[in-house]
Amino acid sequence: QVQPVESGGGLVQAGGSLRLSCTASGSIFRINGMGWYRQAPGKLRELVALITSGGTTNYGDPVKGRFTISRDIAKNTVYLQMNSLKPEDTAVYFCNTHPIPYLGWGKGTLVTVSS
């Protein structure tokens, strides 16, 4: 089963920025919508941002205006640019297909935002 690989997380102060990357083999990004999801301690996994196969983007209310999803199909990579980070953005971030996450879940990348 194809499993994406997420990277780019780390520790950052509130107001800072990070850029996450997600890579996967094959032509997954070319034919599928992709989403960035996150799971905070003690909470359910939630969708943060999505990009459709046609390139349309959409965002969850908590991150609108701060996060930007993009992709490079030639590199089989999806990005999540995160600006103006808040402590409540602290979570493990995952990528997967959208609307149905049918890839195996990767290990994710941990984002920790200190106040």
Helical residue percent band:
under 10%
Count every helix, treating DSSP H or I runs of 4 or more residues as helices: 1
Q: Separation of termini? A: 39 Å
User: What order do the SSEs take from the amino end to the carboxyl end, as H and E?
Assistant: EEEHEEEEEEE
Task: Describe the structure in your own words.
- The radius of gyration is 13 Å and the shape is globular.
- The mean pLDDT is 94.
- The longest helix has 4 residues, at 28-31.
- A six-stranded mixed sheet has the order 2-10-9-4-5-6. The protein has a four-stranded antiparallel sheet with strand order 1-3-8-7, with no helix packed on it.
- The chain is mainly beta.
- Strand 4 and strand 5 (46-51) form a beta hairpin.
- The chain is built from one helix and ten strands.
List keywords for this structure.
115 residues, mainly beta, six-stranded mixed β-sheet, four-stranded antiparallel β-sheet, 10 strands
Brief description of this entry?
With 115 residues, the chain is mainly beta.
What is the strand and helix layout of this fold?
Layout: E1 5-7, E2 10-13, E3 18-23, H1 28-31, E4 33-39, E5 46-51, E6 57-59, E7 67-72, E8 77-82, E9 91-98, E10 109-114
Parallel strand pairs: 2-10
Antiparallel strand pairs: 1-3, 3-8, 4-5, 4-9, 5-6, 7-8, 9-10
